[in-house]
Amino acid sequence: MEVELAFSGWSGILVLMLYGGLMLAVGVYAFLRNRGVRESLDEYYLGGRGLGVMVLFFTFFATQYSGNTVVGYPPTAYRLGYQYLVSVPFFIMIIMVYLLFAPRLYALGRRFNLLTPVDWIDLRFRSKKVTVLAAILMLYGLGNYLLEQFVAIGQGVSGLTGGTIPYQVGVVFFIVIMVAYSWLGGMRSVAYTDTIQGLALLFGVFTLLIGSLIYLGGLPTAAETMIAEAPEKLGAPTGGSLTTWFCLLVLVGIGAAIYPHAFQRIFAARSERTLKRSFIRMAYMPFLTAGVVFMVGIIGISAFPDLPTAESEQLVGMMANALANQNAFFYWTMVLLFGGVIAAIVSTADSVLLTFSSIVSNDLYGRYIAPDADESRKILVGKLVGVAAVVVLVLIAWYPPGTLYQIFVLKFEVLIQTAPALILGLYWSRLNTQAVFVGMLAGTVLAAAFTFAGYRPLGVYSGLWGLLLNLVLCVGGSLMSQVTEAHRQRAIEVIGWQRP
Amino acid sequence: MKKRISEPVKKPLVWIGFIILFALINPWYFPDGSWSPLFFGVPYWALIILIASLALSIFITWVVMTQWETGADEDEEL
């Protein structure tokens, strides 16, 4: 995401300072309203399980749509044309996948006071091996996810301020603010700021679309350009593009629904009704966000024809520049748009960091190292380990290791390997603990190996091959092995609807 | 448990709906590379995909409203 915006220097800095101040104010507000936030894991990590429809909706929204949706998707649409229309249905798939597990998960979360995805795995399997492996995979995937967000914050800030603020200063500024408001108010801060950040992002993408339609030509003009120069961008997908389309639907649908920070948000809902209403709203958001940025990318095809791949990455910056030059209204809305983009990246990063800390607090420190520690101490350990991880990740972002860089790329591929344990475990009492462990481990190794080797048999993504192996081992292993009656009974007690 | 529990995942109708709609949001059923006619610059197949996507959103709404009732909250109050 290297976007240089010539139009914006000091005005960009002003907007960023305002955003930063506003987020801090939200943190202080959340802290003052809920003084007990540092005493209870439930309060700190789940907002006291009391998020209402609006805030819950925006916090789901902010976890799914990041700054990358705005800055990265239009260039892809620009290069692939209508083949990238898949970005609309794949966001709807996420909600569809949620419906396959969220109802039961929410009920269990309430009944057993579940705090993290790992908490659920531990309750279901009561196996240290499985719990620790799942925790490590999640921390690893979340860490890499965070790293990606930090790189994006830095590039966004230096782009928005026309290089006036160096990359490093931008990263440190926003990380300090992010950590400060997260520490102050925990999940409540994160969810409230998500709401502000979500609104900023929505406002930004709509003005970008309206501006593009007014000044840069509409879809018919783009279609004429494509007919003349690249009809394949208009045509229905064939062969390999169809496989890619299918893979994206499956991978994004499952992957984004079981992202640990997305999964954990189900526990934070105030009530089942709240959760349901948030999901219904989420089902329509793809049209308003992914659909809108997709159109922006398509309009770019006629407005900025024939950009090579590297330059096309800057498409949104170029369009924003062109609009900002029209008049004062668009100048300021484009500054706000880029502020919104950075806010969206920060809002994804804060959710990831909070979930990262919660797994450390609750599942590693609280479960195995110091089970007797009081909750405020567990929270403190989670916060400190979170900050330590942030420092390490920032150093990696600035001094990327030459040879091992690829291990920082794996995210989806690794996180998705926890899906069988998380989802099958909800419904299948015969699921064998050993098989879950072997499947998770083997799936991860296969996905990582295929990714490193750049190997993609049949055009199917490495994460999906890993998931397939994982599932085969999980299901096959469970079918072939005997589950002791005691184990099965316990599983039924947990996932059945009988009262404990 | 007093209330009847209903989970989408256990309803055959929900699965059938999801499978059909999933099939429809994959653009395999159009002639390769075809795009004509265009509607306001949008190829016909893209419009059909968008309509199918909207149908999926509407179906999701129906599933959430009518097929999901676990009584989880009443449970807590008892």
Structural overview:
The complex is a heterodimer of chains A (500) and B (78). By secondary structure, chain A is an all-alpha fold. Helices cover 77% and strands 0% of the residues of chain A. Chain A contains 23 helices and no strands. Chain B is mainly α. Chain B is built from three helices and two strands; from the N terminus they run αββαα. In chain B, β1 and β2 form a beta hairpin. Classes of the chains: A mainly alpha (500), B mainly alpha (78). The interface between A and B is large, with 50 and 44 residues.
Give the neighbour order of strands across the main sheet of chain B.
1-2
Strand content of chain B: 5-15%
Number of domains as seen in the coordinates of chain A: 1
Biggest interface, and residues per chain? A-B, 50 and 44 residues
Mean of pLDDT of chain B: 87
Give the C-level CATH assignment of chain A. Mainly Alpha
- Strand content range of chain A: under 5%
Q: What is the strand and helix layout of this fold?
A:
The complex is a heterodimer of chains A (about 500) and B (about 80).
Chain A: H1 10-33, H2 41-46, H3 53-64, H4 67-71, H5 73-80, H6 87-112, H7 117-125, H8 128-160, H9 167-215, H10 219-229, H11 239-257, H12 260-265, H13 272-288, H14 290-303, H15 309-312, H16 315-324, H17 328-369, H18 375-398, H19 412-415, H20 419-427, H21 433-453, H22 462-480, H23 485-495
Chain B: H1 12-24, E1 38-39, E2 42-43, H2 44-67, H3 72-77
Antiparallel strand pairs in B: 1-2
Brief overview:
The complex is a heterodimer of chains A (500) and B (78). Chain A has 500 residues and is mostly helical.
Brief descriptors of the model:
heterodimer; A: 500 residues; mainly alpha; Sodium/glucose cotransporter; globular; B: 78 residues; two-stranded antiparallel sheet; 3 helices; 2 strands; 5% strand; elongated
